[in-house]
Specification:
It is found in: Cell membrane. The chain is mostly helical. The protein is 87% helix and 0% strand. It has one domain. The chain is globular.
Length: 218
């Protein structure tokens, strides 16, 4: 009985650590205004579909990184530092493009584009790198490397934490339009610009972190 309780506590801890470690990196509340900037001009049903797909794709990406990340990086001879550098560049580029343009989506293009076209944005850039970036991927890979030696049960528990996180992402993105309605046009524009700048700065920080570690190597 005592062993069962200890195992339950270990599983709960693994799930909690996974959720708590990834939540500030995924930061659905902070990225929701940027998500809404990408999708606001699409019909509501497409916005809901995109929110659902981003949550699902994000979960698959994190779980894949948890179970396969170390093996994939080792197979290609890629270090986590390189993942940070490349991912930081992509995030910084996305933030910069959002800062430069009035809207990431053109009104005319939306009216003339088939329904399937906006859905192609679900993985890139809405899931990767906007929602699940190199920081989240690196953390998931690190969790996998740590938990893999302690048994498959802890890996599954960590996956449950990621499932809860994906549900949070879906709820926040699904209701991103409500935040826009609450803030109004001016407030939304200010929040979009601030979020875009933070995204740009975050990309540069991730890029710098990867470079700093790589440059310290002999």
């Amino acid at each position: 009985m005592l062993e069962d309780k200890l195992l339950f506590l270990e599983l709960a801890k693994a799930a909690s650590v996974s959720f708590v470690a990834l939540l500030p990196l995924v930061n659905p509340v902070g990225t929701a205004p940027i998500f809404q900037a990408f999708v606001r001009q699409y019909p509501r049903d497409i916005q809901e579909t995109l929110a659902r797909k981003v949550a699902l794709y994000g979960l698959l990406l994190l779980v894949s990184s948890l179970f396969l990340g170390v093996k994939i990086l080792a197979f290609f001879g890629i270090s986590l530092n390189v993942v940070q550098v490349a991912g930081g560049m992509v995030i910084a580029h996305t933030g910069w493009e959002l800062l430069r343009h009035e809207s990431p989506v053109d009104d005319t293009a939306v009216r003339e584009t088939p329904v399937q076209a906006p859905l192609t944005r679900a993985f890139y850039p809405l899931t990767l790198p906007l929602t699940v970036g190199p920081g989240s991927i690196s953390t998931a890979i690190g969790l996998g490397a740590h938990l893999n030696s302690n048994g498959i049960e802890l890996m599954i528990a960590s996956t449950l934490g990621m499932v809860v996180l994906s549900i949070v992402v879906w709820i926040v993105y699904h209701n991103a339009h409500r935040l826009e309605q609450l803030l109004g046009t001016t407030g939304t524009e200010i929040l979009n610009r601030l979020s875009s700048f933070v995204l740009f700065a975050l990309g540069l920080q991730i890029l710098w972190n990867g470079l700093a570690v790589a440059l310290r190597r002999p």
